Every structure is written in C-alpha cells, then in structure tokens.
TrEMBL record, chains A, B:
PROSITE patterns: IDH_IMDH
Species whose genome carries this gene: Desulfofustis limnaeus
Key words of the record: Manganese, Metal-binding, NAD, Oxidoreductase
Reaction(s) catalysed by this chain's protein: (R)-malate + NAD(+) = pyruvate + CO2 + NADH
SMART domains per UniProt: Iso_dh
Cofactor annotation: Mg(2+); Mn(2+)
Protein name, entry field: D-malate dehydrogenase (decarboxylating)
Pfam families: Iso_dh
Lineage, opening ranks: Bacteria, Pseudomonadati, Thermodesulfobacteriota, Desulfobulbia, Desulfobulbales
Length: 352, 352
C-alpha cells in the first residue's frame, strides 16, 4: 500500500522543517517497509503574492483525495492574517471537517521544564481542541464606522453537533488512557450563553462514560493550574479559542512551541486529516536553518500512527528522545544544533 | 476628611478576609491619622437565598455615594453564576463605569516563583484589563433548543469608547513607569472582527505616546511568554476575557491567586471604584480560617493609593513583605499561618 501524502510547506520556517520531515519519512519507509508518495503544493503567502489568492479555486478539491496533509506553517509579514489564515489554514480545517485538533504535551527526555522540580512524570497530557467553530467565526461587523459611536460585534457560534462530537472524542481518548481523567475548559461565569451550553453538553456526553473522572475549570484559573499543577491533567478539552490558548501554554512548560505537534483530525476519515507543527512561520528566524524540527517529527509520528504505521512512529520518537536525551538540542532549547544537523542525528539514531 | 468605604464581604472566604482588611485599615488609620467610616452591605448568595436577589433593587443606588467599595468575593455552590455574578459583581463594574481592571503582578519578598531561577527582578508587571464590555456580553441565545440542530450564539461587543479608554489608560500607566513598555493581547489572526479592531485602535491610541515601546502578541503565544519570558513584560493591556486570563496566569508565576489584588477603576471618579482580591469565594477552604489575606491587603493598598493615602499603603505592603520575607506564610504558600495569625504579624510589623 502506498500512502498518498500532500505536502504544504507554506511560509517561513515551514519550508525548512517540512523537507526534513520528508527526509525522515523516507528513512522510516525504508526501515519499516512501507511506501509513500508525496505531492507538494506551493500554497502560501508567496503564492498569494503571485496569484492573488492563497491557493487556486480548486485547491481544496486537489487536496481531497490524499490520506494526509503535512503542513509547515502559513503566514508572512506584509500579508494580512485574514488573507493567509482564512484563505488556507482555516478553510482546510473546516472543509475537511477536521473538527478535532489534538495537541499532546509531554516533557521529552533531555528537555528541562522551566517549572521548578517538574519532570516527565508530571507533564504528560493531551489538549483536545474544537477546530471548526466557536469563537473563530466570520459572522460579525462594524457599525458607525469611523465615528465616535463606532462599534464592532463578533459572533461565536457553538452547535450541538460541533460541541458533542469533540467532547465525545475527548471522552474516547480519556477512556483509552490509564488515568481516565477528563477536564473541560469553560468560562461559564463570564460568557453567558455559549459557555453554559458547553458545560451542559459536557455533562450530557460524559454521562455515557461513567469510567471517567471528569472536572471543569474556568479558563482563567485553568491557565494558572497548568503552571502550578501540571500533574493534575490528563485529557483537557476546550473550545477553539480555549484549546488554542492551552495548547501554546502547555508546551511552554515542556520545551516551548518548537516541540509542539498537532493533528487536525477528521475522525470519520471522509476527508484527509492534517498534521502540523504548532509553531507557525516564525519570520524572525526564517532562513537561518535553526528552526527546531521536533514539532514536525512529532507531527509526523502522529501521522504515522494515523496511517497505521505505529511502529515507525514509535521508532521516530524514540530516536528523537535518544538525541535530545544525549544533550543535542537546537537553539530554542539552549543547544547548538541546526535544523539539518539535528535531523541527521535523529536519522542516525533510528536504527539504534 | 473621612473616607466613606462600602464593605461587601460577600461569600465564602470573602467573609474571612474582609474583616482582616478592616482591622488592617483601622490600624493604619491610627498610625497615619486619617479617618474611615465603614458601611457593611450583606449582598451575597446568602442574601439571595433569603430575598431572591443578590441585592435590593436600590442596591447600586445605595453604593453610589461611597468613595470606594471593598469587596470580598461572590459565589456559592448551589447558586448559579449567572445569578451571583451577573446579579452583583458585573452590574457594579458596569453601572459604575469601572472600565479598567488593574491587576499588578509582582513577586513579593519571601515568596518563591514556580519558575526556575526567576526572582523579583524578573516578575513585575501590570495587567490592565477592559472591565465592562467585550466577550462578557448578555447578547446571545439558543435556536432549535433540545434538538440535534441546536445552536447557541454569543455576541462580543467592542465599542470605540470602551476600547479607546482602556488602551489610553494603559498608555498613561506605561508612560509613568520606568520601562515605558506596553504590550497588547490580541487574537486577530483567529477572531476576525473584534480583534483586528482592537489592534487598529491600539495603533491609533499609542501613536499619541511616542515615548512608549509598544508590541502585541496573540493570546495563545502570550500565555507561553508569561511562563518563558516574564521579564519581557511591563504593562499588558487586554480585553475583558484576555485580561481575565492573563491576570490569573500572571499570579501563578508569583505565588498564586492568594496574593493577587485588583482595582476596578472608574478613572473619572464619577462613581465609586471597587477593590477586590482576585481569588473568589473558594468554597473548598471557606470556614477554616486559612485563606491568604495578602490579596486583600494588596487591594487595600491600591485603595489607599486611590484615596491619596500613599504613605499608609506603602507602609502596609512593606509590612506584608517583612512578614513574608521572614518566612511566615499561609497554607497556600506552603506555610502554617492562619488568616488571623498572618494579619496579626503584619499589624505587628507596621511600626517596624
Ligand atoms: C467571577 C468572574 C466573572 C470574574 C471575571 O471573569 O471577571 C473573575 O474571574 C475575575 O477575574 O474577577
Ligand atoms: C494561526 C492561527 C489562526 C492558529 C489558530 O489560532 O488556530 C494557530 O494559532 C494554531 O494554533 O494553529
């Protein structure tokens, strides 16, 4: 069987880490005897500057038949976010019903947490983020523009379908983990309609999972608990915005966003899922060859898992941790490895 | 001159810390020769259970002529947040145009940060939170209730007046501090209407303050930076929701919400301002006499500052830090002091 993978390196350091991800996948495919076929798509801010759009009109159509998409990052100085992100990243997440954004947080071997006394035993949880609706909506607008009376409204939309399916998925994930603990992020004391609804559906869905220990925290104190009690968490489910926040804060206590991976998952596999390092295009360090490729490798591991090549994925992360555990780190983690030299080391460690 | 102070102990540990705040104020008034008159209001969840509302119909009217309100906390198990908070706390903030919520974060002497190697020199910033509009709106509702098609919408409303005045206040605060650095919390890459508007107004208002160094971060990565680079921040301004999150996360790196104070400020002084520990009613520890009164004392210091009694406020915080610096801490900080014994020590340290 040949796995058909779409590559979208995108912008900035996306173009530096995706080629290393491909190199890694090729090494793994030789070692674990599976076949991959890559098709690269140039959709990016560069593409936008040449064509006036982030991807061609049939862009999504072209991506639809792939099993997985490996995306680097989207965004460049001088191109507005509502163009780059709302023209590429968010349409993929939505059109392909990638309604779960999975973001594991774990302290890898050789990486020290900025939190006093915290080790790998304390930091090992999974953020499950709603990925298609909620606070990221394009309903809204402006009244009395340009005057003193000016006001802007923004609608958040939470649907039964959208809320239920992500909470149910989080329940399934929690049920499959030893701790069987699920935490819901909310803010129903301040956000009056959508968040109480989220709580209501959380209660309804979790009632089907009596084996789970469930709790909820308001997002304000939850961010504090991530820092003060990271060991309290196992699976944490949140809305699009709250999941976004928690999945940048989580990595901050575990090596930073240079290591943070993600899966944009279409659970039913009607459409491709997308695998993506969380770090973004990082224009400040782009072009220097110093980006940390761990977030990409970890995303590749999630992709291999998804494709059914669990062994290859496990071998990859074991190799990454042999290298980091040996003290070889990129600049963001205080080391001197480059994107390329780090990758070489991991490839070298694959067979060990 | 007699300062007229309204006291609302409220619920839970609010009733334990406010009396100590009063005791402290009385000690300070003797030492610094000013006069206070306290009027206590029983508005609380208890009041609700007896009267069916959190405060009488003319409750706000009764509070209006005080110079300051000292509030403990509102909220109790069994009373819905939309009753307790939307029936008392939020109406006070809104009716009295307390549009700035000021929340300083500073590592006090004797308190250790959970962040490796961080000292008082690294953690000293001020969160300026919009306090009357934004994401906390009561516009919204539910469609197709109880069916599979059910959906809930929630409106955020940002007005020119509301956004400009809080950003301008933050600029003034930043201008008065040595670092002259102002950071804006945004999420304009995901939240399409209100957040780009916030950015636009941030640019417009800060243009009047060329002496400031200004930057902005999306809320996701900003929470990560609070943990990884707390020393980057001086004054941070955010919307109602983002300011709320940052002002719980900030204290998490500086001793927790047991020490976090706040001022709900009506800048123009047409209405009373309200001073409030951030911690909430904490039903889990209420009644045990172990609540940390530092958040209340620090809020009292902000109140004294506001009233023009800066010397008394400075003496109070100096005494607090002499006590914490001597290793006397409440349970939340790993010590054995009770609310009362800690207060006694601070009163004892006032004269030193
Ligand atoms: C209780 C709640 C509504 C409140 C808020 O979010 O404003 C609290 O968290 C705070 O920060 O003062
Ligand atoms: C770029 C941005 C729109 C995106 C998001 O908030 O979803 C990013 O922060 C992420 O977390 O994938």
């Amino acid at each position: 069987m040949v796995y058909e993978i779409a590559l979208i390196p995108g912008d900035g350091i996306g173009r530096e880490v995706i080629p290393e991800g491909v190199r890694m996948l090729e090494a793994l495919s030789r070692e674990f005897c599976f076949d991959l076929s890559f098709t690269e798509f140039p959709y990016s801010c560069d593409y936008f500057l040449r064509h006036g759009e982030m991807m061609p009109e049939d862009g999504l159509e072209r991506l639809r038949l792939f099993q997985a998409i490996l995306l680097g990052a989207v965004g460049a100085p001088g191109v507005a976010d509502h163009v780059s992100l709302w023209g590429l990243l968010l349409p993929i997440r939505r059109q392909f019903e990638q309604y779960v954004n999975l973001r594991p947080v774990r302290l890898l071997s050789g990486i020290t947490s900025p939190l006093v006394g915290r080790t790998a035993a304390d930091i090992n949880f999974l953020v499950v983020r709603e990925n298609t609706e909620g606070e990221y909506s394009d309903i809204g607008g402006r009244l009395f523009a340009g005057t003193e009376r000016e006001l802007v409204v923004q609608e958040s939309v939470f649907t039964r379908k959208g809320v239920d399916r992500v909470i149910r998925f989080a329940c399934e994930m929690a049920s499959s983990r030893p701790a069987r603990h699920l935490t819901s992020a909310t803010k129903s004391n301040g956000i009056r309609f959508t968040m109480p609804y989220w709580d209501e559906r959380f209660r309804a869905i979790t009632a089907d999972y009596p084996e789970l220990r469930c709790d909820q925290f308001h997002i304000d104190i939850l961010t504090a608990h991530f820092v003060q009690h990271p060991d309290w968490f196992d699976v944490v489910v949140g809305s699009n915005l709250f999941g976004d926040i928690l999945s940048d804060l989580g990595p901050a206590i575990a090596g930073g966003i240079g290591v943070a991976p993600s899966t944009n998952l279409n659970v039913e596999r009607q459409f491709p899922s997308m695998f993506e390092p969380v770090h973004g295009s990082a224009p400040d360090i782009a072009g220097q060859g110093v980006a940390n490729p761990i977030a990409t490798f970890w995303s590749v591991q999630m992709m291999l898992d998804f494709l059914g090549e669990q062994k290859a994925g496990a071998a990859l992360m074991a190799a990454v941790e042999r290298v980091t555990g040996g003290g070889y780190l990129t600049r963001d983690l205080g080391g001197r490895e480059t994107t390329r030299s780090f990758t070489d080391r991991v490839i070298g460690a694959l067979g060990e």
